[in-house]
Amino acid sequence: MKKIMNWVLAATLVCGASVFTACSDDDDESLNTKNVSEKIVGKWMVSELDGQPCPTNWKTVLTFESSTKAYGSLSDFFSLSWNERVLADVTINDNKVSVVSEDGNTKNVLDCTILSLNDKEMLMSSDWNVYVNGNSVQHEVYEKERYERITKDYKDAIIGLWEGKVTSEDDEHTDGELHRWKYNANGTYDYYSQENGVWKAGSDVLAEYFVDGTLLCTRWKKTADSEELREWWEIESIKNGVMKWKALRQREDGSTYTATFEMSMIYEL
């Protein structure tokens, strides 16, 4: 499996350089090593690219456990990597942050300059390199991208059997009918459809998911030879046995729409 920098790849290949407005007025005036090391700890998710809301299917989650360790999550369309909370080493020097992972002869290096940082938002520029046997094989540079701090993690709360359907007019994969999903603790899920009043499990050869913070990533294959399909959702809430999702989708013509989903828990696992 490719390591931590694959969760950066989706944003880099799709979005390129992007420009944003400044963060709020309570940013630190001096982004020294101590301030950045303290404030950067926590979970962050990309929120804007090129001054526009980031489509959900491009989102990544980056979690700094400390000033020396981080992990990232990404279900990447481009490399087909499936990275759930992959660990990396972190170095902080004033407002310069380096995130590095190694896998065999491949080394990924993300060098960031934190432009502004507060309790809710982080604005950064970044320079990303991939080395194989010491030789650079890919280099991407970004100007600015905005991250929002994520304070909830629904990784455990989603486990169980749920019943629901899409609640928006548009969505890419759902048929508008009532279905059931059983999210298992091992990262697999079971999908059920109703036939003549009886719930029947699907026969997909692949059905996997992970949750990091509020980001839900899923992938599935109908048969061994069929195309692997993927979909991201943002979990808005899980409360009183009701789970709500939303996702900003982008059509082929570049226009966007918001898909929503709601389901109720049948039972916990």
How would you describe the overall organization of this protein?
The protein has 269 residues and is mainly beta. The chain folds into two domains: 6-150, Lipocalin; 160-268, Lipocalin, CATH 2.40.128.20. Helix content is 6%, strand content 56%. It contains two helices and 18 strands. It has helices spanning 6-15, 33-39; strands at 42-49, 52-53, 61-64, 69-75, 82-93, 96-103, 106-117, 121-132, 135-150, 160-166, 179-183, 189-195, 198-201, 206-212, 215-221, 229-239, 242-250, 256-268. Strands 13-12-11-10-18-17-16-15-14 form a nine-stranded antiparallel β-sheet, with no helix packed on it. Strands 1-3-4-5-6-7-8-9 form an eight-stranded antiparallel barrel. Strand 1 (42-49) and strand 2 form a beta hairpin. It starts with 5 loop residues before the first helix and ends with a strand.
Fold topology:
Layout lengths: L5 H10 L17 H7 L2 E8 L2 E2 L7 E4 L4 E7 L6 E12 L2 E8 L2 E12 L3 E12 L2 E16 L9 E7 L12 E5 L5 E7 L2 E4 L4 E7 L2 E7 L7 E11 L2 E9 L5 E13 L1
CATH level 3 topology of the largest domain: Lipocalin
Biggest sheet statistics: 9 strands, antiparallel
Which structural class matches the secondary elements? mainly beta
Q: What fraction of residues sit in β-strands?
A: over 45%
List keywords for this structure.
269 residues; mainly beta; Lipocalin; nine-stranded antiparallel sheet; eight-stranded antiparallel beta barrel; 2 helices; globular
